[in-house]
């Protein structure tokens, strides 16, 4: 089934670290919390790295961490990242540029990976940058609106934390009123240290509605320990019919709730980086996108894509073998989830898909 999908579109990711890493710095970037006197190389993520990444750098699978990292240093950070990213099967990256740290911007990530790359603008650092250069409340609010709409000219989408939509102090289904916004802005501007990102629910809801007005797809990021997508249901229902698609990034803890909302609301989608079998039993096939959410290590792009594609292949193969789907239907579902849905939602040029698929 893999050949029917073409290239993956990674609908949500971040840049990679540009320099060489020692074993401790590398391990610290693997997901999970290490127990005392153990190593994160002894984890699902660590084993996946050792299985899939060494062959891309010219080593045998399951190489030891020390041997693998020595080879990585021998090649140099850029060449290692280039070989790893080009082994993912990813043909387009949608890069949230708001993650802290010295990470490669979209253009450099795409060049290393031999793929198209597009920017998703994170609203919180955008507001922080505007606040750092605005002297008054009026100036801040005017510059904020201008910056959001200016960013929409070159980006393919926006992202924002979803938690403000669960705030119980005011209705979250519609935009906050101007008096409420001015009060929140005045307080934040008067008390914030330079460089602080906004956390006030009123300001963040104000930002979200600016993004809705700009018309680009909006990614709602949900914390694993947060209230989940159900808390944003009022906002999602209020934005129906306004022309802005909303992509839920729920994490594994909230995939069920996100799938239900995607099934109920025509403009709501969900992006996942895990086994898609659960959500594809609850959400329409045209509503599910792949999002690896990798940050820092190019190895995480490899393991995320390999794991997702393997799970998708198993799902399609089982349904076809059981006679539930035809082979053509299975290929179509795989193509939608792996690439087609993201290209449609984010309005990505078809020319990029053809160009990178044929290595030009």
TrEMBL record:
Gene3D superfamilies: Metal-dependent hydrolases (3.20.20.140)
Top-level division of the source organism's lineage: Bacteria
PANTHER family: AMIDOHYDROLASE 2 FAMILY PROTEIN (PTHR43383:SF2), NODULIN 6 (PTHR43383)
Protein name per Swiss-Prot or TrEMBL: Amidohydrolase
Organism: Actinacidiphila cocklensis
């Amino acid at each position: 089934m893999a050949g029917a999908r073409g290239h993956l579109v990674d609908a949500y990711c971040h840049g990679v670290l540009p320099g060489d890493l020692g074993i401790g710095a590398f391990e610290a970037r693997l997901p999970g919390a290490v127990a005392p006197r153990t190593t994160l190389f002894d984890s699902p993520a660590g084993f996946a790295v050792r299985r899939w990444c060494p062959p891309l750098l010219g080593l045998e699978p399951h190489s030891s961490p020390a041997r693998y990292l020595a080879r990585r240093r021998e090649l140099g950070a850029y060449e290692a990242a280039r070989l790893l990213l080009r082994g993912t099967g990813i043909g387009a990256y949608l890069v949230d540029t708001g993650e802290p740290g010295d990470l490669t911007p979209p253009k450099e990530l795409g060049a290393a990976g031999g793929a198209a790359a597009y920017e998703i603008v994170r609203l919180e650092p955008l507001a922080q940058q505007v606040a750092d250069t605005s002297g008054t409340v009026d100036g801040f609010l005017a510059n904020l609106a201008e910056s959001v709409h200016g960013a929409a000219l070159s980006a393919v989408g926006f992202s924002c934390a979803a938690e403000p939509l669960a705030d119980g102090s005011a209705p979250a289904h519609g935009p906050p009123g101007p008096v409420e916004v001015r009060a929140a802005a005045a307080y934040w501007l008067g008390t914030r240290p330079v460089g602080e990102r906004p956390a006030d629910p009123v300001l963040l809801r104000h930002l979200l509605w600016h993004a809705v007005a700009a018309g680009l797809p909006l990614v709602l990021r949900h914390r694993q320990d947060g209230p989940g997508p159900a808390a944003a249901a009022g906002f999602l229902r209020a934005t129906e019919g306004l022309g802005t698609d909303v992509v839920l990034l729920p994490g594994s803890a909230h995939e069920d709730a996100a799938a239900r909302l995607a099934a109920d609301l025509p403009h709501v989608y969900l992006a996942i980086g895990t086994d898609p079998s659960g959500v594809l039993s609850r959400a329409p096939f045209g509503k599910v996108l792949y999002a690896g959410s990798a940050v820092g290590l190019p190895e995480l792009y490899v393991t995320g894509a390999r794991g997702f594609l393997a799970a998708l292949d198993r799902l399609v193969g089982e349904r076809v073998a059981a006679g539930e789907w035809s082979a053509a239907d299975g290929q179509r579902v795989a193509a939608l989830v792996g690439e087609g849905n993201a290209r449609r939602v984010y309005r990505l040029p078809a020319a990029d898909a053809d160009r990178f698929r044929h290595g030009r």
